[in-house]
Design a protein that fits this description.
The protein is α/β, with parallel strands linked by helices. 60% of the residues lie in helices and 12% in strands. It has one domain: P-loop containing nucleotide triphosphate hydrolases (Rossmann fold). The chain contains nine helices and five strands, in the order βαβαααβαβαααβα. Strands 2-3-1-4-5 form a five-stranded parallel sheet, with helices on both faces. α2 crosses α3. The protein binds adenosine monophosphate. Adenosine monophosphate binds next to α2 and α3.
Length: 193
C-alpha cells in the first residue's frame, strides 16, 4: 500500500496532480471537496449542510468531514493505496485519519506539498472561476477567506507531518509535466529507500 497526502493551499494544483498520480500508481483518489460538491448537486442533507460553509470559503466542521471520509475509505477498501486531496485540513482530521488507518494496519507514507505563492493562487482561482461555476472561486474576498482558513487551521499540519519525517515540499509553479515529475521523484525516492 502507498498512502499519500497531496497538500497545499487552494488552487495549488492538488486535484489535477492527484488524478495524474493516481493513474501512475493505481491509487484511489479521495477529494473531500469533490465529495462535498457531489452531495451538493444531489441535494443530500450532507450537501445542504456543507454548502453554507463552502460558499463562504470556510471549512466544513470536522466531525461531518471525518465521518464522510471514513465512509469513503471503507467503501474503497481493499485497494493499492489512497491519494488524499484536500484532506486532512485540520490537526483533528489528521489524527482521526491516523487512527482510522492504524485500525486497518495502514499509515500515511508521504505528505507532498505543492508550494505556490498567494498572488499566483489568486490569479489561478479567479481564472478557474470563469469556467468552474464554483461559488468559492468567484471573488477575491472568498479566496482570501480560504487562504485565511488555510493559515489558521491547515498550516499547523506542516509541523505535524514534519515531526513524523513525512513532509516534502515541491515547487508548484511550472508545467503540469514538470510538477508531476517533481512529485514522482519524491515517491520514487521513498520507494527506493
Ligand atoms: P477544495 O475542493 O479542496 O478546494 O474544497 C472546497 C471546499 O470544501 C473547502 O473550502 C471547504 O469548504 C470544503 N472542504 C473540502 N475538504 C475539506 C476538509 N478536509 N475539511 C473541511 N472542509 C473541507
Amino acid at each position: 500500500m502507498l498512502n499519500i497526502i497531496l497538500f497545499g493551499k487552494p488552487g495549488s494544483g492538488k486535484g489535477t496532480q492527484a488524478s495524474l498520480i493516481k493513474d501512475k500508481y493505481s491509487l484511489l483518489h479521495i477529494s473531500t471537496g469533490d465529495v462535498f460538491r457531489k452531495n451538493m448537486s444531489n441535494n443530500t442533507d450532507l450537501g445542504l449542510l456543507a454548502k453554507g460553509y463552502m460558499e463562504k470559503g470556510e471549512l466544513v466542521p470536522d466531525k461531518v468531514t471525518v465521518d464522510m471520509l471514513k465512509d469513503e475509505i471503507n467503501n474503497f477498501m481493499p485497494c493499492n493505496g489512497f491519494i488524499f486531496d484536500g484532506f486532512p485540513r485540520t490537526t483533528f482530521q489528521a489524527k482521526e485519519l491516523d487512527n482510522l488507518l492504524l485500525e486497518k494496519s495502514l499509515k500515511i507514507d508521504l505528505t507532498i506539498a505543492l508550494d505556490v505563492d498567494n498572488n499566483s493562487l489568486i490569479d489561478r482561482l479567479l481564472e478557474r472561476g470563469k469556467s468552474s461555476g464554483r461559488a468559492d472561486d468567484q471573488s477575491v474576498e472568498k479566496i482570501n477567506m480560504r487562504l485565511q482558513e488555510y493559515d489558521n487551521k491547515t498550516k499547523p499540519l506542516v509541523e505535524y507531518y514534519n515531526d513524523q519525517n513525512k513532509f516534502y515540499s515541491i515547487n508548484g509553479i511550472g508545467s503540469l509535466e514538470q510538477i508531476t515529475s517533481r512529485i514522482v521523484e519524491v515517491i520514487e525516492d521513498y520507494n527506493n529507500d
